[in-house]
Specification:
- The complex is a heterodimer of chains A (about 625) and B (about 290).
- Chain A is α/β, with parallel strands linked by helices and about 625 residues long.
- Chain B folds into 2 domains: about 230 residues, Rossmann fold (3-Layer(aba) Sandwich); about 50 residues, no CATH class.
- Chain B is elongated and about 85 Å long.
- The chains are: A alpha/beta (about 625), B alpha/beta (about 290).
- Chains A and B meet through strand 2 and helix 9 of A and strand 10, strand 11 and helix 8 of B.
Chain lengths: ~625, ~290
């Protein structure tokens, strides 16, 4: 027996409420009658003037209590594990979204989902098969259809929560491909309703049963922790639950407790805190909410205070104040600006060419802005009116926090993206911003910044910082990444290897440059990168932590919306037989019975002799 | 108190006494005694000592037996009307008291019209002296109009009633008292005092078919005692069963005292009440 919606157990509070109502005396209107002689034998013992009365056990009370208990238990959706059997081919989809790490159900939502899938695998009979799909950043087939329970269990042992919301559309697509041509198939989805919804209602080829996991939405998160130029630390804390929380925020500098902040948050509110007692020599600042809650991933935040390594950047431009200002915003950046006529190749970490491309070999990495037609690594064509400005991929990290809605460009150049380049921003037909993937890196803006209002938008300095992160060596220093997100560690020119040490102390060596993306970022915390250079060792850090409000809002959501036309009408297969319909029917019967008793004579059914005597 | 039409109706009615009445004065009721009168009663054989003037000689000629010719003696009868004036009589819609008073007025009129000896009183209260003849109508009606129901009365008051002459005693009441079933002995006591008891119950429609429901505090208008209860259709059905049982008990009490029990509704008009009296044999057509 298990409860699919244990939170509904709150409905059982009606049981003490009913008993309380029986304790309370009813304020009755007074009616004068000729005699009480015909009423007397039916009256209850309710003559005391006190607002409370002695509890009198009656059949009515028992029926009401029984009805409330049955209804309350029914609302919790009890299910008998294994009572309903499973279909010939069952595809189990497990949502691995970060919210599944919440521990409001034991051991966690994800653990409970895996356990249910494991239980389902144990019920397989000869001729029945089961497949397991893990919904992470991408849907992953953990186990192809098989009737071997041990294989399925070992596949489930490998299941781990993901750092990003599960891709439901991919999962459905995978399940459909498995079930196509297999009669008697079904899909079971274990989720808390936080997987990424598909852009249009999913089409399924077999019945889908959604089993919601999770019982509460109570969660408080540290959404943001940043440091201002003045040195004070800014914190944003949000209560996603409904209850008011009295919390403390422990501030630790390099692991040493330096301050405790008090914060009281009403339900569904956000508060901003500013803290300016940062020790001078601190390298890493950690903020921790206490007491914790069911979702620990967002209870901590880290900030790397250490100065990032300095980089030299050369800006070659006739006149571009916008670019100059945007570049100067970055800390630890030594900017040199020269006219195109004065350009001389030199040792720079990045060169920005604005409306100019030097003859000969192009220094790399380089950012080219509106290069002359036919010049540079990506030859531009004739000028066109680009029209709407669109993101190439909304999830591109280069467009993080960049809004293109209000951006207009008067003219740009036509260009055909060569192989190895990806489009970050595009017009209707032609790219507007291209970046070269792999090492060394380059980027090309195909339009003159002065012929657009992009530099006047807030998006511009953010876009420039994102480009610098991508183009400059390192790029990851002091940055914050989502759990599970691969981190690209751009090696210093003379780096031989790099050791990455995670929050758990485990060290991974990356060699030789260019380093492959570092993917072991499932654990939140501070990651230390030690690059071995010919001149010594360079230590830098990056942070992995959850800063996603849609994931921190952990209240279990509704099931996925399926296309009604494609939704099969056959009875839903379930490994777990839900018995709530029977309980609701029993509650209805009890209520009817209680009504009939009430209609006949309530005091006839007093249970105790004392009560009967009192009634007489 | 009564309309001309109602008086016309009552003029065609007479009280129905079950036993011959032995009155003080000559009247219109049969007497248990034989006497000279125009109305032939019966024959019986002559025995020594009989008045030989009453021998029916034509019968002797036919039967060759001495037979006496008997005649009915007509004497006055006693009608005692007792009206319940307890506080519960003002209850009901329409009020029971109006109906009870009109019923008493009607019966007294019928009795006085038949030259009976009519005495009217209140249960547990004062009584008018016996009246005879139509002259007594106005005094009795004035007495009835002056009565105001209040307080508490009960069957025990019946024991204190003493009657000089045998007759019929009509008790008009709702018979609603706390002491359930205690009307039997006092009614039997009436019979022992040579009274033919007639228990005439008047209840209002809402007492026969209660329309109240829900959580209520019922207060007895006479005793001010209260009970709190939840009135449901089932409880109302039980109430009506209890009322029927109470009426059956009253009927048994009256029957055991050679009397009668009947009931009317306060919503009934006088004709309906007299019809009830006709059915119960309390009144008859003159």
């Amino acid at each position: 027996m298990q409860f699919l919606l244990p939170g509904a157990g709150l409905a059982l509070l009606t049981v003490p409420a009913i008993v309380l109502l029986y304790f309370l005396k009813v304020r009755r209107p007074e009616v004068r009658v000729s005699t009480l002689m015909f009423w007397r034998r039916f009256v209850a013992d309710r003559q005391a003037n006190a607002p409370w009365q002695r509890l009198r056990l009656s059949l009515l009370l028992l029926l009401q209590l029984l009805g409330a208990v049955v209804l309350g238990v029914g609302l919790m959706r009890p299910g008998l594990i294994g009572a309903a059997g499973i279909d010939a081919t069952t595809v189990v989809m497990i949502d691995a979204s970060p919210s599944m790490a919440a521990t409001d159900v034991s051991p966690s939502r994800f653990g409970a989902a895996v356990e249910r899938a494991r239980s389902l695998a144990g019920q397989l009979r000869p001729g029945q098969q089961m497949a397991v799909i893990l919904l992470g950043d991408h849907a992953q087939l953990l186990a192809a259809p098989t009737g071997d329970s041990s294989l399925l269990r070992s596949a489930l042992d490998r299941a781990r929560p993901s750092g990003t919301a599960g891709d439901f559309a991919e999962g459905i697509s995978l399940a459909n491909s498995i079930l196509t041509g297999r009669p008697g198939g079904s899909i079971v989805l274990y989720s808390d309703g936080h997987s990424r919804p598909p852009s249009s209602p999913a089409r399924v080829v077999a019945p889908l049963t959604y089993q919601s996991i999770g019982s509460t939405g109570e969660n408080v998160a540290i959404e943001t922790m940043t440091r201002s130029s003045s040195g004070s630390v800014f914190l944003r804390v949000t209560n996603y639950g409904r209850t008011t929380r009295d919390l403390k925020i422990e501030m630790r500098a390099d692991g040493r407790l330096v301050d405790v902040l008090q914060v009281k948050l009403d339900g569904n509110t956000t508060t901003d805190l500013t803290w300016s007692r940062l020790p001078a020599a601190a390298q890493v600042l950690e903020a921790k909410l206490t007491p914790g809650d069911a979702f620990a991933l967002d209870d901590k935040a880290w900030l790397v205070i250490a100065e990032p390594p300095h980089h030299s950047v050369l800006l070659v431009t006739a006149e571009n104040g916008f670019m100059q200002k945007a570049l100067k915003l970055r800390r630890g950046l030594d900017l040199t600006t020269v006219k195109p006529a004065d350009y001389k190749p030199g040792r720079y970490d990045l060169v920005v060419f604005d409306g100019f491309v030097p003859a000969g070999k192009l220094p790399e990495p380089a950012l080219l802005i509106n290069p002359p037609p036919g010049e540079g690594p990506v030859p531009l064509g004739a000028a066109i009116d680009p029209g709407s400005v669109l993101p190439g991929d909304v999830r591109d990290p280069l467009l993080s926090h960049v809004s293109l809605k209000e951006v207009h460009i008067q003219s740009a150049a036509t260009v055909k993206p060569p192989t190895g380049w990806r489009t970050v921003i595009s017009a209707a037909a032609d790219p507007l911003l291209l970046v070269k993937e792999g090492e060394p890196r380059d980027a090309v803006l195909t339009f003159d910044l002065h012929h657009s209002d992009l530099p006047l938008q807030a998006a511009f300095p953010i876009l420039v910082q994102n480009l610098l992160d991508y183009l400059l060596p390192g790029g990851f220093e002091n940055q914050v990444f989502a759990p599970g997100q691969p981190v690209t560690l751009i090696a210093e020119p003379d780096a031989r290897w790099a050791d990455v040490t995670g929050p758990d102390g485990r060290t991974t060596r990356l060699a030789p440059p260019p380093f492959p993306p570092f993917t072991a970022t499932s654990q939140p915390g501070v990651y230390t990168v030690r690059q071995q250079l010919s001149s010594g060792e360079r230590v830098s850090r990056f942070v992995v932590q959850l800063q996603n409000p849609s994931i921190s809002r952990i209240v279990p959501g509704a099931g996925p919306f399926l296309q009604p036309l494609d939704r099969p009408t056959a009875p839903l297969p379930r490994g777990t037989l839900e018995i709530w319909p029977y309980l609701v029917a029993a509650a209805v019967v009890l209520l009817v019975l209680e009504w009939l008793v009430y209609l006949t004579n309530p005091t006839k059914f007093l249970i105790s002799r004392r009560s009967q005597e009192a009634g007489r | 108190m009564l309309t001309a039409g109602e008086l016309t109706l009552l003029g065609r009615l007479d009280l129905a006494f079950r036993r011959p009445q032995n009155g003080l004065y000559a009247g219109e009721r049969r007497s248990p005694r034989s006497a000279r009168s125009p109305e032939f009663s019966d024959f019986r054989p002559y025995v020594a000592g009989d008045d030989f003037r009453q021998i029916d000689w034509p019968a002797y000629a036919r039967l060759e037996k001495l037979m006496l010719r008997l005649y009915v003696a007509e004497e006055e009868a006693s009608l005692n009307l007792i009206v319940d004036t307890s506080g519960s009589m003002v209850m009901g819609e329409p009020p029971k008291w109006q109906a009870a008073r009109r019923l008493a007025a009607a019966l007294s009129f019928v009795g006085l019209a038949a030259m009976d000896r009519v005495q009217v009183g209140e249960l547990g209260g004062g009584r008018l002296p016996p009246m005879r003849g139509r002259d007594g109508v106005s005094r009795i009606w004035t007495f009835l109009e002056g009565l105001e129901p209040a307080g508490e009365t009960g069957p025990a008051e019946l024991r204190r009633l003493l009657w000089a002459r045998p007759g019929i005693t009509v008790l008009i009441s709702d018979f609603l008292v706390e002491e359930d079933g205690s009307w039997g002995p006092p009614v039997a006591g009436l019979a022992s005092r040579r009274q033919e008891p007639v228990l005439w119950q008047v209840l209002s429609p809402d007492e026969e078919h209660p329309s109240i429901a829900g959580d209520l505090k019922l207060v007895d208008v006479e005793t001010e005692r209260s009970r709190e209860l939840t009135i449901t259709p089932g409880l109302v059905a039980d109430y009506q069963r209890a009322l029927r049982a109470h009426r059956a008990e009253l009927a048994r009490s009256a029957l055991s005292a050679s009397g009668r029990f009947l009931h009317s509704s306060s919503a009934d008009d006088l004709e309906a009440m007299m019809l009830a009296g006709l059915r119960a044999g309390v009144v008859r057509r003159a």
